[in-house]
Write a structure and sequence with these properties.
Layout (H helix, E strand, L loop, with lengths): L1 E3 L1 H6 L12 H7 L2 E3 L5 E4 L10 E3 L19 E3 L19 E3 L7 E2 L10 E3 L12 E2 L1 H6 L6 E3 L19 E3 L8 H8 L7 E3 L11 H8 L5 E2 L2 E2 L2 H24 L26 H25 L1
Parallel strand pairs: 1-3, 2-4, 4-5, 5-6, 6-8, 7-9, 8-10, 10-11, 11-12, 12-13
Antiparallel strand pairs: 13-14
Helix pairs in contact: 4-5
Length: 309
């Protein structure tokens, strides 16, 4: 088993070059970057002497468990993509971590990031999950990242619902291509909570086949500059925003007038308003009988007066 230790660093020609008057242990304290990608590493050993480490490259290895990084309080970038990691843990001490790359692992639940208040980028694409399984994001973890996260990549993870991501109000870039998102109304609601979003990629989702999909997204996120790799023209954006506002105003007007009284002009046509106000339909014969009754009632007082005389 290949384990990343200070001995491995000492044997690496890419790292240790003995400097005049500087011992190996002193040299370890000056290290800010470690490059050990594609080295068949399965485990992280004791690297506590590298206390000033800022960037750690461990992608394309065979690591199954994140361990022994509690010392790295100065770490800002951690590259662990394309390993065999199943759980996100032991990162609580990395208070300065800004970018975390975990794509291409076997992570089913995104958690354990509650203390990473400086995290700006989180990359979780292409998790190798069991058939039918989808990537889940813990709501408490999302809430803890709400004020810091700028970039989120969840491509190709069988995700069909992103409503829990509403809290990420600082997002600038969102990638969720090749998932199973299909409800445009739910997506519009989520996007309306991201006022700073600039780039978004949803290509490969069922929702992209919906009528006027692109128009719906553009009008939901006024700040968006690029959608699915295509830039958004400012004139197009303004036209769509105006079109949506006009459509909503028309719907509101129709709603307010629906069912309200619409006065009909005075007329002898008893059926003139039947189209607007359904009710009994009067035939010509019934109208004539009504007129005769009215005439008889008007003539009756005159007959009474004549009879009295």
């Amino acid at each position: 088993m290949v384990r990343l230790t200070i001995d491995l660093i000492a044997k690496s020609r890419n790292h240790y070059r003995k400097k005049r008057g500087l011992s190996f242990m002193e040299y370890l304290k000056t290290l800010t970057h470690l490059h050990f990608f594609n080295q068949s590493i399965e485990d992280i050993g004791d690297l506590s002497m590298c206390r000033n480490l800022n960037v750690l490259y461990l992608y394309d290895n065979q690591i199954t468990h994140i361990s022994n990084l509690g010392f790295a309080s100065n770490l800002t970038h951690l590259y662990l993509q394309n390993n065999n990691i199943t759980h996100i843990d032991n990162l609580s001490n990395l208070q300065k971590l800004s970018k975390l790359y975990l794509g291409g692992n076997r992570i089913a639940v995104v958690e354990g990031l509650d203390t990473l208040c400086e995290l700006k980028e989180l990359h979780l694409e292409n998790q190798r999950l069991a058939p039918g399984e989808k990537l889940l994001l813990d709501p408490m973890t999302l809430l803890s990242l709400a004020e810091s996260l700028y970039v989120l990549n969840i491509n190709n993870n069988n995700i069909d619902d992103i409503r829990d991501l509403t809290v990420l109000k600082e997002l600038r870039q969102f990638s969720a291509s090749d998932n199973t998102l299909y409800n445009i109304e739910e997506l519009e609601d989520v996007f309306s909570h991201w006022p700073k979003l600039l780039r978004m990629d949803l290509d490969g989702n069922p929702v992209c086949k919906k009528k006027k999909y692109r128009d719906h997204v553009i009008t939901a996120v006024h700040s968006l500059k690029v959608l699915d790799g295509k830039e958004i023209n400012d004139l197009t954006r303004q036209f769509l925003i105006n079109w949506k506002a006009s459509k909503e105003a028309k719907i509101k007007k129709n709603y307010l007038t629906k069912g309200s009284f619409i006065p009909c002009p005075l007329t002898n046509d008893f059926n003139a308003c039947q189209g607007a106000h359904p009710g009994p339909i009067y035939s010509h014969a019934s109208v004539q009988r009504w007129k005769q009754q009215q005439q008889q009632q008007q003539q009756q007082p005159l007959r009474n007066q004549t009879a009295q005389k």
